[in-house]
From TrEMBL:
UniProt signal peptide: 1-30
Key words of the record: Signal
Entry protein name: Sodefrin-like factor
Domain of life per record: Eukaryota
Length: 230
């Protein structure tokens, strides 16, 4: 009968869906990631050192359905490390700036595909204006009349470092074109090197985050104002 045929097709459809799920799991490798948060009172393990560059803590998590490891760098200075789901990887860029419009602190989210790869602080996301739902950026495009800065710089490389001294971490790369000082909306300072060409002293805002580029070694050791503009 017609009803029996419909039931048969429904059963076949369920079995097909189950088969597709099983096929998608074949060859899938569980991902092990650092798992911590600098805030207390959440489901993830509290670790005050979770925000350290080159994190190497003991808290980890393994998920068979994860496609990578993730980090969230919050504007208030907190850091979360965990896993990246297939849905997040499909729906969002590798660097995604989340502006929650005051419901919670905005944050930069990034992810990487390897086990325990989420030990860093999304530094690559801060070298160019990040993706955001409401960008207010001013970008610099080199032209034939303006030469890029000299290649090869040493830059301060640190997170939440309002001042620098002889103990502050330094990074050198022959491909660095500028050093960058970033100030979040909560006045947390991030200092890194950048592969992007910008004029010396070029500053811009992305949402409430301020970026300032300079073109000489160690030049990002100077504080910038959060309302710095081009």
């Amino acid at each position: 009968s017609y009803i029996a045929i419909r039931r048969l097709f429904a059963i076949m459809d369920q079995k097909l869906n189950l088969l597709m799920i099983l096929i998608s799991c074949i060859g899938a490798e569980a991902k092990t990631c650092y798992y911590c948060y600098t805030k207390e009172g959440y489901n993830s393990p509290y670790d005050p050192d979770c925000g350290n560059p080159n994190y190497n803590g003991t808290n980890t998590i393994t998920y068979s359905t994860a496609v990578g490891c993730a980090m969230q760098i919050y504007d208030d200075g907190n850091v979360f490390r965990g896993t990246e789901s297939q849905r997040y990887a499909d729906e969002h860029d590798a660097c995604q700036y989340w502006d929650h419009m005051g419901t919670e602190p905005a944050n930069m989210r990034c992810w990487c595909p390897d086990d325990l790869c989420n030990s860093y602080l999304c530094e690559e996301c801060f070298t160019t204006p990040p993706t955001t739902d409401t960008p207010t950026t001013t970008t610099y495009i080199p032209n034939s009349t303006q030469e890029p800065p000299n290649k090869g710089l040493s830059c301060y490389d640190c997170f939440d470092c309002p001042t620098v001294d002889e103990s502050t971490k330094v990074a050198y790369d022959e491909k660095f074109l500028t050093c960058v000082t970033i100030m979040t909306s909560h006045e947390k300072i991030i200092r890194i090197g950048s592969y992007d060409a910008h004029p010396d002293g070029h500053c811009y805002l992305v949402g409430s985050v301020s970026y300032c580029h300079c073109t000489s070694s160690f030049c990002n050791g100077i504080n910038v104002a959060i309302k710095s503009t081009e």
